[in-house]
Structures are given as C-alpha cells and as structure tokens.
User: Which sequence fits this backbone?
C-alpha cells in the first residue's frame, strides 16, 4: 500500500514510511517537510502484572492484569537553516501537544490506540539534521478497530429481545447501545450472564397511570405555527415584524430568519403555537417538560444573533424563557440565559460559551448537537446547559399554566447574523403530577436512549441523564468470540424498542 522514501524527502501519499504516525487523522510525515518517521517500538506484546495474597504460609495469585503501553517513535528532522529548523520544531511541538488522541500507523490503518504524548528526547544543539524520539503513553494497552460492528436485537424463541455479538478480536471490549422507543417506556434492562445494567425505574410505571403524562407537541416542521408580531415577552426592545420560514440545510429541516423586518435595533421574527388540548380536552399545562433542538454556530467573530423559546400563560405573560445570544463584535463569546417571569423577572443563570464552528467540543449548539430541555414542576423551573439541568424556585409561578410557546430569532441593526441560527425540532410533554419523580413514562415514544459503554454514561435524546442509571448497575463487556445480551422493558411498551449493539474490536 505504501512505498518507502529516504530521510529528508517530503512524504506524500505515495511515498510514506510504513510506520508513519497519524494523530487524530493528521499524518506528521505529510505535515512537515524534512520530517520522517524512522522506527516505532512498543506496539508488540505488553507485560502482565499480578498481585498476590498470603494465607497462612502459602501465597496465592489474587489478580492478574495487563499493564499500560508506552509507544516510542524515532524520527529524523532536517532543515536548510537554523531558523527553518526552529520553525519545524515549533510545528512538531504543536502537533505533539495532544491528550487522549487516536493514534494510528500507516502499516495498520484499520486500527488505533488511545494515548497521550509524554516524554520527548532533546535534540542535539547546533545541527541542521537530527534523529530524536518522543513517547506516547497508553493507559489502555489495546488497539481498537476504526470500523464499528453492529448487531440488531431480535426476539428469541422465548420472546425476549436478544442480540448475538461476535467479537473477532482478542480483548473484551465495551458495548454501546442505541435504543429507539417505539412506544412510551419506563425502563430498559440490559442483561448478560454476569452483569445487569438498568436504566429507568420499573416501579414508576405501576405507581401512576399513563394518562397523566402526555406528549402534546412533537415536530420538526414549524410551517403550521402562526406568525406572531406581538411584543417580545422577555424584552419589548426585540422587534418582531420580521418573518421566520422553514428551510433545508444539509438534508435537515430548519426554521430560520428569512426577513428581519426593521433595520435598526434588535429586529427579527417570531412564531407561536397554542398548546393543543390533552386527552381530557384541557388546554394548558402547569407542569411540563419541553425538549428542543437549536443550532447556534458562528462562522466569523463579527456575527451577532439572539434566539429564545418563550413559555406564556393565557394572558400572554411570560412564565420563563430560554435564550441564546451573541451581541459582541469584539470577541466570539455568546451567552445562554434562563429568565423567569412572575411578579419580578428573574435572570436565573447566564453562562458564557464559544459558539465558533472551529471550537469543536466547546459549543453544545453546534450542527451535530444542539439538544436542550426545560422543565416546570409547580414553582420549580429549570433549563439544561452542558450536562446539568439548572433549576430555580419561583413561588409566584407555582400555579401558572403554560398555554402558548413562542420561537424567536433576531439580529442587531444590519450586522451579519450568526451563520447557524435556527430551530430544528421541539417536543412538549404535559404532566399532571406535582412531583418530578412520579412521572410514569420516563422515555416517550420516539425518544432514543444511547449508552456509551466505554465512558459509562447514558444519554436520552442527546442529553446526559446520569439519574436514569440505577445504582449498582454494571456496564457489560463483549468477550472474544460469541456472546449474547438480552433486553427487557416495560410490559406496556408495544411495539418493542428497536435496539442496536455496537462494538469496536480490540487486540493486544
């Protein structure tokens, strides 16, 4: 697949050292002229370690385990001038400044290690060509397949959902799960011969009848929402004479600002929907949960926009709103805010973040994510931000009933708007109970549970939900060879969930 090249020649896709190193997909040999990987050691077998226990006069083996792995890379670097050599070392140091990156090698492109750069040998002084080394520490000594293997759960002869997993590697590896609920569901049990992982609560299903919790809105198309030119309930300075329209971006439907309307001040458009009646014919919800997905991502520093989801009572007074705003031209900093209404308006939290497209992992509203939820349970209101739902108690909101939802997108004067300013979906669920713990159907129809086996985390519709995991649960591993995993769920959940198990095979 690869050809060799002499040290000093710039590497290309055709001429690449067999052990060339790739860090998160970036090949050092191709990034720096005059750099060439010479040798790599540490990919061979790792040592085993053990602990022992003395009972009486005898020693017994207590534990036996694999140690960490250290990979050492030897390389050659040359330049024509001292200044050029310094520049190349600066670039090399930048590429080697990584923590828990995916490490691949040209002669094994289908696999990767997870490691962090540690020690580096100091190169000789006063030369234009040198051979030196650096080390990569891998606390997990295994290498893993780049490609994932998927296994679909099917009903076995006993009527139990079961997935048969085939691991052709030599190491036991974590299992990820994707569980799509086709009906309301209270819990999921993931069972192997040695482990049990339970998500949700079985008892909650029996304690409260299902009809006390209902999904009233579930949409990714806002075409039937009414244009709303009323005053913005959080701040009337935000004008609403513009228009929002549905569009398509990257194959997905989005609601975005098509016409700002006014050209001075904060100006934009707003749409609203009266919450549909529940099964008893009652309009409005005193206790509710709302999940929505919004996109907020800048393509340049001097872009500004404001977005909000407003929850109103029958008098069109603000109960609370969840806002995302960027109003600064000098820096790429935006804010997430939750404002509660009542006798006096409360700004409960104001959290800064970086909305840049280039700042991957720092923006929870980028194109790949954007998942948010809010709650109101009596006087308690709250909103999600980076893995935490922040709540506040506002006594005069206890009996407020939400009857309308508004979506607002606006800009500032005629300044460029944030490249990604759009809503993508919204789910509104009404609860007629006073305690959050008593909600009967934790996972509504259409929701998706994701289990990250390696990290030991559970997500629902993209939101981290650590409280859903029952204490004492274990995350099973897929051993080498064939193994089976069985799945259990609420008996009223019909049709059954669609469940997929995924692994990355691993080797020593």
Assistant:
């Amino acid at each position: 697949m690869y050809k060799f090249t002499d040290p000093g020649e710039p590497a290309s896709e055709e001429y690449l050292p067999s052990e060339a190193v790739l860090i998160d997909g970036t090949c050092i040999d191709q990034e720096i002229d005059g750099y060439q990987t010479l040798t790599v050691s540490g990919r061979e077998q790792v040592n085993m370690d053990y602990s022992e226990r003395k009972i009486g006069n005898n020693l017994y083996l207590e534990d036996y385990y694999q140690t960490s792995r250290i990979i050492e890379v030897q390389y050659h670097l040359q330049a024509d001038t001292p200044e050029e050599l310094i520049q190349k070392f600066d670039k090399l140091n930048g590429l080697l400044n990584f923590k828990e990156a995916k490490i691949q090698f040209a002669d094994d492109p289908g696999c990767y290690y997870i490691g962090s750069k540690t020690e580096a040998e100091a190169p000789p002084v006063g030369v234009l060509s040198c051979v030196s080394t650096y080390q990569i520490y891998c606390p997990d000594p295994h290498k893993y397949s780049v490609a994932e293997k998927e296994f679909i759960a099917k009903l076995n002869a006993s009527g139990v959902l079961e997935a048969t997993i085939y691991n052709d590697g030599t190491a036991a590896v974590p299992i990820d799960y994707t569980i799509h609920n086709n009906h309301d569901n209270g819990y999921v049990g993931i069972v192997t011969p040695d482990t049990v992982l339970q998500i949700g609560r079985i008892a909650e299903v029996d304690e409260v009848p299902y009809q006390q919790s209902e999904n009233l809105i579930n949409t990714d198309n806002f075409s039937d929402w009414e244009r709303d030119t009323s005053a913005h309930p959080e701040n009337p300075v935000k004008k609403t004479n513009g228009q929002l329209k549905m569009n398509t971006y990257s194959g997905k439907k989005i609601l975005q600002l098509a016409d700002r309307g006014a050209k001075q001040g904060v100006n934009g458009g707003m749409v609203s929907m009266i919450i549909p009646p529940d099964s008893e014919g009652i309009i409005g919800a005193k206790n509710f949960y709302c999940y929505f997905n919004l996109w907020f991502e800048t393509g340049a520093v001097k872009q500004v926009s404001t977005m909000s989801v407003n929850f109103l009572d029958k008098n069109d007074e603000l109960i609370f709103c969840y806002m995302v705003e960027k109003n600064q031209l000098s820096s790429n900093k935006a804010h997430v805010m939750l404002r509660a209404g009542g006798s006096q308006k409360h700004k409960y939290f104001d959290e800064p973040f970086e909305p840049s497209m280039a700042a991957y992992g720092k923006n929870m509203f980028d194109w790949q994510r954007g998942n948010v939820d809010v709650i109101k349970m009596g006087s308690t209101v709250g909103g999600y931000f980076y893995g935490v739902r922040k709540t506040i108690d506002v006594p005069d909101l206890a009996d407020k009933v939400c009857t309308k939802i508004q979506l607002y997108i606006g800009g500032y004067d005629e300044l460029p708007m944030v490249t990604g300013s759009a809503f993508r979906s919204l789910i509104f669920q009404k609860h007629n109970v006073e305690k959050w713990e008593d909600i009967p159907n934790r996972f509504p129809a259409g929701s998706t549970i994701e289990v990250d086996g390696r990290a030991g985390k559970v997500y629902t519709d993209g939101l981290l939900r650590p409280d859903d995991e029952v204490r004492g649960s274990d995350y099973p591993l897929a051993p080498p060879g064939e193994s089976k995993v069985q799945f259990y769920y609420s008996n009223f959940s019909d049709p059954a969930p669609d469940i997929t198990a995924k692994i990355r095979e691993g080797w020593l």
Notes: The longest strand covers residues 108-120. The mean pLDDT is 86. Residues 407 and 415 are 21 Å apart (CA to CA). The two ends are 23 Å apart (CA to CA).
